[in-house]
Amino acid sequence: MLEATPKEIVERKALRINPAKTCQPIGAMYAALGIHGCLPNSHGSQGCCSFHKSHLTRHYREPIMAATSAFTEGSSVFGGGGNLKQALTTIFTVYNPDMVAVSTTCLSETIGDDLPTFIRQARESGAVPEGKYVIHANTPSYVGSHVTGWSNMTKAMVTYLSAKTETPNNKLNIIPGYVEPSDVRAVKQLVTQMGIDAIVFPDTSDVVDTPKTGDFQMYPKGGTPIPDLIDTGNSTATLALGNFTSEAAATALQNKCQVPSRVLDLPIGLRATDRFVQALIEFSDVTPPESLNDDRGRLVDVMTDMQQYLYRKRVAVYGDPDQVISATEFLVDCGMLPVYVITGSPVGKRFEERVKDILKDTVPDAVVAANADLFYLHQLIKNEPVDLLLGNEYGKYIGRDEDIPIVRFGFPILDRVGHSYFPTACYWGGIYLLSNICNTLLERLDRDAPDELFELVR
Amino acid sequence: MTPHDSDTLKLEKATYEVDPKDVTKEMVSPYPAKVARKRAKHIVMRDPSIEGQEIQANVRTVPGILNTRHCAFAGCKGVVVGPFGDVLHIVHGPVGCSYYTWMTRRNQYRSREDGKNYMSYCVTTDMQDSDIVFGGVKKLRQAVQEGYDIFKPNAITITATCPVGLIGDDIQTVAKEMTEELGISVVAFNCEGYKGVSQSAGHHIANNGFFKNWVGEGEATDEEIEGFTVNLLGEYNIGGDSYEIERVLEKCGINVIATFSGDGTYDAATKAHLAKLNLVMCHRSINYMAEMMETKFGVPWTKVSFIGVQAFAKSLRKVARFFNDEALTQRIEEVIAEEVAAAEAEIAPIRERLQGKSAILFVGGSRAHHYQDLFADLGIKTIAAGYEFAHRDDYEGRQVLPLKVDADSRNVEELRVEKDPERYKLTADPAWVEQLKEEGFLNRYEGMISEMGEDTLMIDDISHHELETLIKRLKPDIVGSGIKDKYVIEKFGVPCKQLHNYDYGGPFAGFQGAVNFAKDIDMRINNPTWKLVKAPWQN
């Protein structure tokens, strides 16, 4: 598979090999799908839209509806204003969405397309019907990663839509981060369980995990309703889950509508979920119901029941920064050793310091790197192996070459199902994630056991 | 049966419950007037009484319309260049385009003796904003050096994404310089995504690059290659298709010199001009290469299909006829008899379960056409079909060439190719080749229209709305399409077979491939799950 990867690690200045990130617009497209009745439009050549749709489709095994401004060479020379206007005309005439969320690409960014002006002109020319919305995010692929794209589009929801009126809504805003629809569902369930009224955005549940009914819905029932997005300006506070995906929107909302905000880790694992619950208590003045304490207790129960298979197991964690941070903390809390912690996103010191802080008492010499790739991770593993890989699909090649089991976690996962239905967020999600980890290690133990050690009970 | 007789594969008259004319109207009805007029030209109902029926194709996509087309980069790197497995493919651009062409087309590759295999690597310069501002040439040169130092590949390709062309990075010069510096072939492709109107432009760019740099450039360029030798052009080894094709060809005693580009190698590509005949599978993606090789080196080409039991047998007979060798012909007939019998034994019981079902196919630049034959083998009627990136000749046949050159096709280089004074060599008796050409046996492609049944619908570059209308009105038993609309189709309760990229199946080419396909289609259409879409209390 990856036989050509040498063990010796040499510095690379120019070559990215087997990246652990992809480009901004795909994140923006996915975020836009989290608004009810929204059709994303990729402003660039049609290949970008096609790539993003294909990849999201393979990950979710669901229709991903998105349009493109379909640039050809002429638009690249003369600008894409005409293309956007025509795209909006076509989209509103034929597909009738409530909103179009435009994200730019390398192409439209490099030629300097001025999206706010184009959108204004399109509206003035009648291409955007009354009562319909068009928002945009600048998402050049040569800046940040898909994580940044998500963050930018989520922020655009605030800058375009959020409004403060005289009437407080007594709700909490919750920005759940770049997660699976199952995770958003888990967050919403926990909030409901606490008796809290919240506006959760973007919300991809019931959009990319829709039931099969024999009919196709262009705009499924899920997604944050536009009136709710506007109303976020009247909320009591905002909880932004995930530093790198949700903080920008929360800050924008604070600046625009003076809604106080707090940034928390993604509630993946025990303690990150505890902190989320704590924050909910603090901002809403509610007491968690006994059922929530029970849920928490069940997760702790699994953690202790399974400790014999987890303790001091060496793990390599890679993927998106917010997921990786929370997962690292969870693994440590389970007694495991995350020895390599890698994100491909160029999020730098803030990520590295955070992870190192989590690991300082347990694995002080762990290799922690942002803006890294899977080629580097593979080389680290060749030098000193791990017992488990925790990360997205692409790690399977390393797993096969080095004979290491892998638990799929994060984005993308193209060869397994379940990720869009079973959460890894909140207490129940923790049980699911930990079951996956334990059962994978147990499978391996059984596979490798000689007859006399092939035990009925584990 | 004469080898080029296609009568056996002609599709039957469509029998719809609804009038296809009404369906056509409904397909374009929600569009703005101008768009409706434009799209109507892309929708044609087959009428065999009309000589030379025309269809609009290979024109710009309407911005905002939901279709499944792709870009020049996807066609160049993703389709044609990428499958060369012993070659390191460096994508010059921001990370995304490289990432999305990382293994997703399932181009399988077996390591050769030198063990060099970079198929599962994704390699890019990952351009950052400073590279866009100050230019990425320096970084690219460094990247090529690093790629060489780490991997020592047999050759390197550089493919450009959108911003590279805009900022004017001279990747051709980098390739030239690095070829000299490293002593291996480094080829650059200016396949920026905005070129042309679909991925088709990228195929052309890829062909040009390989023809200019590789074909005829091998060290052993003058060596004789004995026997019945062919190249496979336009075969990408998706899901292992090439393996099945080569198995049968070898069994017949036909040697494959080079494959462009599935399971292909750099060395073989440089020797491609030594083959005696080019077999063109995907006409759309590679007819350029076939034409240029004939002009420069004298290698004639014939259009074949490896998809479908009858179609593959017919293609093998074509090879037999070209070589005109009694022993070979006999061997091929023996192989056909043996293989067809084996395949038929497995397919026959499945056909009973599929007989009379209907399919609509929207895929590729000739894939829909190829798969019609395979569906026909299974007793399934194709009632509507079309391509996402075809040109008019893919529908109407090569006789419509040359087509009008417009602003969008002009930006792909047209190579001026001349006879190579030293290496041009006719591989067969000129009179024989001439005779075969006159018969339309060589250098001919009939396209889709001639084989479509009366009243069937042909739709070019189908849009989401049009597909939805077809599904609701024609109620096909299966749709052959790609990943982007697979789940749209399946939400309607209609199974979809991915034919552009098979995702989890294959091989579907050749005789055993047809058996695999039969099982796959049986599973998709007859799986009891589809009957459970509604709850008992909803029925």
TrEMBL record, chain A:
Belongs to the NifD/NifK/NifE/NifN family. It comes from the Bacteria. This molybdenum-iron protein is part of the nitrogenase complex that catalyzes the key enzymatic reactions in nitrogen fixation. It comes from Coleofasciculus chthonoplastes PCC 7420. Residues 23-441 form the Nitrogenase/oxidoreductase component domain. Its cofactor is [8Fe-7S] cluster. NCBIfam families: nifK (TIGR01286). Binds 1 [8Fe-7S] cluster per heterodimer. Keywords: ATP-binding, Iron, Iron-sulfur, Metal-binding, Nitrogen fixation, Nucleotide-binding, Oxidoreductase. It catalyses: N2 + 8 reduced [2Fe-2S]-[ferredoxin] + 16 ATP + 16 H2O = H2 + 8 oxidized [2Fe-2S]-[ferredoxin] + 2 NH4(+) + 16 ADP + 16 phosphate + 6 H(+). Its EC number is 1.18.6.1. Tetramer of two alpha and two beta chains. Forms complex with the iron protein (nitrogenase component 2). The keyword Isomerase does not apply. One of its GO terms (molecular function) is nitrogenase activity. The keyword S-adenosyl-L-methionine does not apply. This is Nitrogenase molybdenum-iron protein beta chain. GO terms for cellular component: molybdenum-iron nitrogenase complex.
From TrEMBL, chain B:
Residues 71-525 form the Nitrogenase/oxidoreductase component domain. It catalyses: N2 + 8 reduced [2Fe-2S]-[ferredoxin] + 16 ATP + 16 H2O = H2 + 8 oxidized [2Fe-2S]-[ferredoxin] + 2 NH4(+) + 16 ADP + 16 phosphate + 6 H(+). SUPFAM superfamilies: Helical backbone' metal receptor (SSF53807). Keywords: ATP-binding, Iron, Iron-sulfur, Metal-binding, Molybdenum, Nitrogen fixation, Nucleotide-binding, Oxidoreductase. GO terms for molecular function: ATP binding; iron-sulfur cluster binding; metal ion binding; nitrogenase activity. This is Nitrogenase protein alpha chain. This molybdenum-iron protein is part of the nitrogenase complex that catalyzes the key enzymatic reactions in nitrogen fixation. The keyword Cell division does not apply. Belongs to the NifD/NifK/NifE/NifN family. Tetramer of two alpha and two beta chains. Forms complex with the iron protein (nitrogenase component 2). Its EC number is 1.18.6.1. Its cofactor is [7Fe-Mo-9S-C-homocitryl] cluster; [8Fe-7S] cluster. Pfam families: Oxidored_nitro. It comes from the Bacteria. Transmembrane segments: none annotated. GO terms for cellular component: molybdenum-iron nitrogenase complex.
